[in-house]
Design brief:
Rossmann fold; seven-stranded parallel sheet; 7 strands; 13% strand; globular; SDR_fam; EC 1.1.1.311; 1-phenylethanol dehydrogenase activity; Sc_DH/Rdtase_CS; oxidoreductase
């Protein structure tokens, strides 16, 4: 199914900076009438309000705070597109002393956070005709890098949840999109050591809305991601996106 964001209402988690901010800006470029900037501290979205006026509505949402997600869904009852961009990362191998604690932290935000967002907003999207849920999953969801093992594990889990959401929400007419950026110029990217060769956040924003417009499940935004996506394509098309027999003897 395809979807046109023109004159629609969009909600973006982590909209105050980096990829989330680029997604908010691109939503307006594509004709969205309003964007909820879903952030942990609403004052961080004030520059966006100053630039765009009342078309930007700051709303508190913390992936680690289930009550804030439920409250956001009760406020944003007119939302058509939910883009879950917010996430966390620790630099940790599986052998590091704090690896288990790092993974618990990442799972809570990157996996449970996604599930909380989906559970809260799926009924809202259904009431509004179906809409879209897009999840930022990263190439780390299909390839593990040793120094970011726990982060990769959390993103692999969120990718798995996203696949389940795709099937679960199809019946209510909700398009689900899984976005897999490579190295991007963000604060998180700097922490990960991506350096100056990383791609701009705008490239991710373009890929998100192109996938929504085309009705595609996977989006591989930047050159590194596209290389991974090309290698992964056969598996994605024949397994992940295929209608496989549900009960295998």
């Amino acid at each position: 199914m395809t979807f046109d964001v023109k004159n629609k209402t969009v909600l973006v988690t982590g909209a105050n900076r980096g990829i989330g901010k680029a997604i908010l800006e691109e939503a307006f470029q594509r004709g969205a009438k309003k964007v909820y900037a879903a952030v942990r501290k609403t004052e961080s979205a004030e520059p966006l309000v100053k630039k765009h006026g009342d078309r930007v509505v700051p709303i508190r949402l913390d992936l680690n705070d289930p009550a804030s997600i439920v409250a956001a869904a009760k406020t944003a009852t007119d939302v058509d597109v939910v883009i879950n961009n917010a996430g966390v990362m620790k630099i940790s191998t599986a052998l590091d002393e704090g690896a288990i604690e790092a993974l618990q932290f990442e799972i809570n935000a990157n996996v449970y956070g996604l599930m909380r967002v989906a559970q809260a907003f799926a009924p809202v999207l259904k009431a509004n005709g179906g809409g879209v849920i897009a999840q930022l999953n990263s190439i780390a969801s299909v390839k593990t890098f040793a120094d970011k093992t726990t982060y990769c594990a959390s993103k692999a889990a969120s990718y798995s949840i996203t696949q389940g959401l795709r099937d679960s929400l199809r019946e209510q007419g909700t398009l689900v999109v899984s976005v897999h950026p490579g190295p991007i110029q963000t604060d998180m990217g700097q922490e990960a050591g991506f350096g100056d060769n990383a791609s701009p956040p705008s490239m991710v924003a373009d890929a998100v809305f192109d996938a929504i417009a085309d009705g595609r499940f996977h989006a591989w935004p930047d050159p590194v991601a596209q290389q991974v996506g090309d290698a992964y394509r056969s598996f994605a098309e024949n397994i992940v996106e295929a209608e496989l027999q549900k009960n295998v003897d």
